[in-house]
Amino acid sequence: RPAPLPGRHRSRLPPRARSRLVAVITIPASVKIFIGSAPIDMRKSIDGLMAIVEHELQEDAYSGHLFVFVSRRCDRVKILTWDKGGFVLLYKRLERGHFKLPHMDPSAMAVQMDATQLAMLLDGIDVGRVPRPQRWKPPQVDRPGVRPMDKPASP
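The chain above was modelled as a monomer; its predicted structure follows.
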């Protein structure tokens, strides 16, 4: 095994643990994720996908949002996004099976999804069959115009 190059980071993990590491991409809540409802030609490159985003989806391709495109056979996915002066194009091809797409209204050009749904889609999980837990919301309380801290102290 060759010696590591000077100045290079050397992992302190044993080789066995390094083989089980998984890359995680965190998507901020401010980034919207749109999945196109119609299949596209996977021969389209960045410029072709950008034209679809701007003309058909009526969205800004430079917004930093993620735009997901699926092939006709649902075995390939391309994700287009803008990042700090350049477009990023992610491409995934399944060797077996196909992506399980969420239910989409046929009249809509694109459907918005969240980062969890995108991760499940890319992992081959059927998003429509996974029940989503209800989010907790604080109870609604009728509040008068005066806040408790604004009331004068009683003698």
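Residues 24 and 119 are 10 Å apart (CA to CA).
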